[in-house]
Amino acid sequence: MPADSYEVTQVTVKSPRLQKVGGKGGIAGEFFVPAYQRGYRWGKHEVEALLSDIYADGSRAPTDNYCLQPIVVKRRAGKEAYELIDGQQRLTTLYLIYRYLNTEVGMESGHRFSLVYETRPASQAYLRCLDAERMSDNIDFYHMHEAYECIRSWFAVTATRLGTPSKLIAFKVLDYLENLVYVIWYEPDNIDATTLFIRLNVGRIPLTNAELVKALLLSKDLDAHNFQRRVEIGSQWDAVEQDLQQPEFWAFLSNNDGADYPTRIELLFDLMAKRRVDEKDRFFTFLHFKNALDGRVKTNSSSVWAAIVQCYQVLRGWYEDRDLYHKLGYLITTGISLRELLDLSELERTKSAFGRAVDQLIIRSIGLPPAGVMELNYETGSRKCENVLLLFNVETVRRLKHSTERYPFHAHKSEKWSLEHIHAQNAELLTTAEEWRHWLVDGKAALEKVRLDELVLDLERKDVILEVEKVLSTQLTESRFTRLSRRVTALLSSESDDDSIHGIANLALLSRPINSSLGNQAFAVKRLRVVEHDRKGAFIPICTRQVFLKYYVDAGSEQMHLWSREDRQSYLEALISKDRGVGQYLVGAQ
Q1: pTM score, whole prediction
Q2: What is the separation, in whole angstroms, between the first and last Cα of the chain?
Q3: Are strands 507-511 and 417-421 parallel, antiparallel or unpaired?
Q4: Which residues contact 76 (CB under 8 A, 6 or more apart)?
Q5: Strands 181-188 and 417-421
Q6: Of the candidates 159, 194, 190, 186, which has an alpha carbon nearest to the alpha carbon of residue 173?
Q7: In this structure, what DSSP letter does residue 377 have?
Q8: Tens place of pLDDT per residue across the chain (590 aa)
Q9: 166 Cβ contact list (under 8 Å, min separation 6)
Q10: Rounded to an integer, what distance in angstroms lies between the CA atom of residue 21 and that of residue 73?
Q11: Coil, strand, or helix at residue 274?
């Protein structure tokens, strides 16, 4: 059964009756969809369920009538003109089915109704053309086009499943619609349409708080004399909703998947209502606005809507400001609530004061002096390491001079993140003589810069350097490389304790899938794999990319096949630098 079906038990109606869908005496006339209604939102499940219920695998007998769920209307001026209070989703889908039968199959049907929209007149025209190139122009077009494609697919899949020609299935569907399929037809008497709309929909899953609030706003203080204001609010609503559907803007504002907010403007309503994350009342936000509009200290819908628009404009202004975009984006990503930031902006009314307060929030989010950052460790503070490295990446992008590039929070939030150990634990996955030779050249250079405290180890270091020089002058075999690379790795590892291996100077951010693909491989192998993922378009954070491209050491001194002590030191210095890294947000560094 389609997801918007329900039983009407609480409304007194005039002469409820069964109304044939098509054919002689079927649904006819112009159905007006008012501004308080949401757009068309049925998906694959609902469309297929409706078609399957109508067709019943072609088994209906001539007397096997079938009744769809209610359509609730209120008569308007005109012979066959109605305000469509409830049933828009079903009636629109029936329209699309008839369109398929007429245009795709070439059948003449008794389809005699149309839909018009108070605030979305383009939707009426789009229903007639369903132009694929325009389906992304707005969210209504998208769902209408997808529903039509679902209808087309259902006929093809059903024909294959039953071994029946699709045209025969289409003929039976049309016959059932014209002769056997009815809707429950309600025309309420002496009740306001928007009031009825809310009463019908409170407690039903499909309608969101935002859509119920919209019905409130467009029914309070906005009678027929304020038609232009209703249209204006409806148009602004659609523009704000479309803006919030942009992945970049949404990811800046929220850590929630977009699916959690099918109507994105509800985020603004939740903010205005100060809804807590742990709030259990599903209709908390709707009731907040209902109380505001119906309570003792009444406000009017125009002022409520103006406050919502102002909230949106503040958020959009933050998004457009490149510095605030990066700083607030970091804070929101790491758990600071949007409501807290709005409260802060109301307290610190000038842009400069707000900017300083935002910087203080970032400082508190790190809560460490430079020495504390240098001591961060994967095993004892992985979450803090992730936050510091995220800030490092965000700040690196923010500080790019003469650039409009922005840190892509939408890409960041589409991934699960982990900490990658940069330092190679072994070199055994290198496979060619050229790779072996490059690795040993870099290993020798690294050993020449190392001074080991223990005499025995330092003598071993010198001996390994000599052996590498000797091996490089002869033909290199895999067995000789494996033995010698293990000695080089052991000496380079001996200069560091476990804290150094797990310290933040040996860590970088990578998505979990990419991190898993690298495994415990040699730095040279990791470097090539990261470059390969980057070339294929995977999101590699800028600082991670720079780690594997050796940005943090001076040109000419980089050892492309190793991550040495010098690399770690240069990376750490950049990380805590005020000019390049997170230094300005460290305690005592201001």
Answers
A1: 0.67
A2: 63
A3: antiparallel
A4: 32, 82, 83
A5: unpaired
A6: 159
A7: B
A8: 343 433 333 333 344 677 889 988 899 999 999 887 878 989 999 999 999 999 999 998 888 888 888 788 888 876 788 999 888 999 999 999 999 999 888 887 656 899 999 888 889 999 989 999 999 888 899 999 999 999 999 999 999 999 999 999 999 999 999 999 988 788 876 667 777 677 666 655 455 778 778 877 876 655 545 667 777 888 899 899 999 999 999 999 999 888 788 889 999 999 999 999 888 877 788 888 887 887 655 678 888 899 999 999 999 999 999 999 999 999 999 999 999 999 999 999 899 999 999 999 999 999 999 999 999 998 889 999 999 999 999 999 999 988 999 999 999 999 999 998 887 555 556 678 888 888 788 778 767 776 666 777 778 888 888 988 888 888 888 888 888 888 877 776 655 544 577 889 999 999 999 988 776 666 766 777 888 899 999 999 999 999 988 889 876 666 666 677 788 899 999 999 998 899 999 998 66
A9: 155, 156, 158, 159
A10: 15
A11: coil
Alpha-carbon separation of residue 317 from 15, 252, 359, 514 (angstroms): 53, 12, 18, 35
Residue type (1 letter), 107: M
Give the residue carrying structure tokens 């999101």: 539
SS (H, E, C) 396-441: HHHCCCCCCCCCCHHHHCCCCEEEEECCCCCCCCCCCHHHHHHHHH
Closest CA to 583 of 293, 368, 280, 320: 368
Tokens for 182, please give them.
Answer: 């009815």
Which H or E run contains 374?
helix 370-374
The answer to whether 23 and 17 have CB atoms below 8 angstroms apart is no
Token couple for 246: 């942009």
Q: What are phi and psi of 79, to 5 degrees?
A: -65, -45
